[in-house]
């Protein structure tokens, strides 16, 4: 797959500059050095040409290959026109939050014309993860897979496949994303809806000016392939299927699952899913297709109806139909039963996993879309969309939370994020009165956890403004056990009786269902400052996120590592870049980006 196999340049400067870091780190496995060069490049899709910022001249970006236990150094050279950070999604980075890459949480951005080197520590992860920009909406064009092979001397928990394949699902916009977002934020309207989805950078046969570049996957009859899937899309869960070929799901978020067969998969933004595909059908050409699963009925109701396609093509001499077969098992856009059924099929490959049982912190967190009022003049107010967790809409400080915490600098955050919402009501009732919840409070409120504390969180979806939809929640620095989901309002007496405490999947991203709840548990064993948020980027833009601070343990090995000698500097006005694209005098979202 040429688009994902871009050669990563090794810089002698990086090697020399990182020797001190290496000497200060305990390294297990191999050490890898790569360069990421960010610069603008023109791309033509949907009959239109645009320039966008990409890594190493590729969209999607280069795939990184490591083994479990390896260490990775990536020197990011920003030759673009705006600041960017890179997040190593799903990599826990033990005691190493300095290199997590969450803008305004663990670092400020890498300014144009500068560079910054990330240290990425792979420990328990095995399977597929990914990297992406974590600055504003930059990840729409800056992302790529991470393939983590088993450590030397170990193997997959399933028969060795005959080959491997990677597919990255993403969103495509013909317009200038930053300019459009700024205009929509200023106008108080919904944020961007993609014009197509892509598979390995191509929309496929059902989109204009696209059928000559549709991605093709050549297979040999009788062989089995490990297919690694990533949903790098901005705001949509996606159904995925291969015509006439069932898949065997074997992993998600770099953790193995009990294998199960399915006609389709559901994959949320931020998730990776690994499946086995056996080429056992009559030789021919078969469509690989993805389309949105749409769970919302919000007033901002537009969504991308396109079907992204690639073609699975058998090698050899044969006469194939002129048109590939389309997957009949691909669910329709609003098929919640199919979505729910897939999620409930996921089980940890290990029975009797070490689920946290000594819970010392229980949190009940509502996830809501809201609105707030902006006074335009003495007589006029306008309504602007917002998002919240426990009615708190996150407000980015101008210096990152990690620096403020580590240096013990006050004034940038408070430690009063609540364990419960401020009010309880019929969370899932349709047509709730607009005053059901107060206007969300904008604040930089974090939750502090003791080292090794065992935490249970129940996320409760709400239908405020008739806006309930699936929210894929992602936690940095930790993976968690998904104990269960359900529809309606969580009942703290009866619903825990349904928890899967035997073989719950171990994930870093999981969805709170529309008009329902999600229960997770994790051990706060990773000291540092860790973002958690909805992985629908428009909700992150509107403030559906917060931060956990995990305190140090009692030893050096249970404490945050020393910071590197250089971190990108923070400036009081560095967070205002999006405003440059807007003609509005209102500075509404300058600290929500």
Q: Strand fraction band?
A: 35-45%
Uncertain segments: 1-27, 574-593
Report strand order across the widest sheet: 10-9-12-17-14-15
What is the radius of gyration computed over CA atoms, rounded to a whole number of angstroms?
23 Å
- Tally the beta strands: 32
How would you describe the shape?
globular
Keywords: Apoplast, Copper, Glycoprotein, Lignin degradation, Metal-binding, Oxidoreductase, Repeat, Secreted, Signal
InterPro entries: Cu-oxidase-like_N, Cu-oxidase_2nd, Cu-oxidase_C, Cu-oxidase_fam, Cu_oxidase_CS, Cu_oxidase_Cu_BS, Cupredoxin, CuRO_1_LCC
GO molecular function: hydroquinone:oxygen oxidoreductase activity; metal ion binding
Protein name: Laccase
Summarize the structure.
The protein is mainly β and 593 residues long. 7% of the residues lie in helices and 37% in strands.
Characterization of this structure:
One of its GO terms (molecular function) is metal ion binding. Lignin degradation and detoxification of lignin-derived products. It is found in: Secreted, Extracellular space, Apoplast. There is one protein chain. By secondary structure, the protein is mainly β. Residues 1-27 and 574-593 have low confidence and may be disordered. Strand 22, helix 5 and strand 23 form a beta-alpha-beta unit. The protein is built from 6 helices and 32 strands. It has helices at residues 12-17, 19-23, 177-187, 336-344, 401-406, 537-542; strands at residues 31-45, 48-55, 64-67, 71-78, 86-89, 115-121, 127-133, 143-149, 163-172, 196-199, 216-219, 224-231, 237-242, 247-252, 255-262, 265-267, 272-278, 285-293, 308-314, 359-375, 381-389, 392-394, 441-443, 446-449, 453-461, 471-475, 480-487, 506-507, 509-512, 516-524, 528-534, 545-550. 7% of the residues lie in helices and 37% in strands.
